[in-house]
Write a structure and sequence with these properties.
Largest sheet: 8 strands, parallel, barrel
Helix content: 25-40%
Strand order of the largest sheet: 3-4-5-6-7-8-9-10
Shape: elongated
Structural class: alpha/beta
Low-confidence stretches: 1-23, 200-220
Order of helices and strands: HHHHHHHHHEEEHEHEHEHEHHEHEHEH
Distance between the termini: 60 Å
Oligomer: single chain
Amino acid sequence: MKRKNTVLAVLALLLVCLMPVRAAAFSDVHAGDWFQQDVDAMTGDGLLRGYPDGTFRPNDTITAAEFVSVVARCGGIPDSVTYDAHWAAGTMQAALDAGWYDWDEIPPSGEKYDKPIVRQLAVSILMRALLPDKSGDYATETAKIADFSQVDGRYFNKIIAAYSCGVAQGDNSDCFHPNSGLTRAEACAIIRRAQTIAGNGTPAVPDAPQTPNTPEVPAPTVKTGGGVSEHGWLQVKGTQLCDEKGAAVELHGMSSHGIQWFPQYVSRQAIENTAAYGANLFRVAMYTGEGGYLSNPVQMKKTAYAAMDAAIANDMYVIIDWHILSDGDPMAHLSEAEAFFREVSARYADSPAVLYEICNEPNGGISWKNNVKPYAECIVKTIRANAPDSIILIGSGTWSQDLQDAAADPVAGTNLMYTCHFYAGTHGEWLRQRISDAQSRGLAVFISEWGVSRADGSGGVFTSESETWLNFLHRNGISWANWSLCDKDETSAALKPGTPVNRAWTDSDLTQAGKFVFSHF
């Protein structure tokens, strides 16, 4: 019976997709309904498709696949090639490739395709797709939203833009209900408004990743090479990383993958090979979960310290990264973090080479106020007892992308920087704007992890989008470490499978990603 029901459901979906477009209103869309004009206009334009029984079902909650499919028809993007059998898989992949949403919001594995889409994500997708250049004043627009405190920080800019231009509106209580579902009628209304604003109903150009037509990057005003022997103790002046003489500097280098999985690529030879290509930074990614430090602290410290010593021996700056991931709340293992950073900061107290990244990617149901900031305050104090002047890198929520929270309520102290992570095939202009906004509010930003792939490590290599990112970082004097120095079978890996670590590397050992990144040291 279950198989029979599945077959019938698939046939129903095929009928929905293939049935002729109705020029008139659906049987359950009546003259005088508040949504009738929007539904009729979009149906006439071939943008809406109802059900085989002639209904539109305006009060049903719209799914992620349904919403993205209608927006894609408005935006005119062709489906991407995919082997997923879901009826909307090609459209969803095209929208993901275009940067309309991130892989973690609607995973390409499809488990959320047929689930209701929440309002804040729907508005974000719509604005990225049809009105990517719209913005709004934070104070003016947030005053209109009674429940703005419930909005996820990653959606601030797009929701503010949507309110500013009239795409989004509140209910009678001025509430947006960011985490509630959206009915099919409500979806039509906001899409129709966005269409009209974009060009009187004319399909808009999608916000596909592309290299903007911008002038050449000017001659650098910061030093982008040189190691510890040249720059000495680093310091933060304003929002800029500087050397001990106060001259602005950028660090460019590689991050390891998890050292519990790829210890061979944090060996002395592997790090020496990386330095030989011009990198002046190495990040040691010491996972806490996933079989890392919390499972085997003695071995993980031994591997991490050896890698740090190898980087220092090669005149490189080195980040020791407390790599939280599955354990997304940094407070969950506060005592273990205190003990580790007390030990590592004492061991390297006199080394100008060491930077401390105290929480890789906080995620899940955490907040800056209740989880990340109190953790950071505690660990900063622990490190400062031994290393009063070293650079400390602090993450934020949503995989270290909620810079706006840190900018609004920063940790007190000196030589503190805030990390941001991006993947060129997933994250675009909206995140660059967030970085710019954070800098304008006085936050010093450090890109301690970025990749040339999508955020799941696959797709690409997105060279033009990566070039756009690197140009942006250079214009803003921001240092970076690329993910990752390993031979894993994913497009973000810099090394071909089986690359040896008992000799120097040549370009033939590098993947497409590796060649691109290494050429930018």
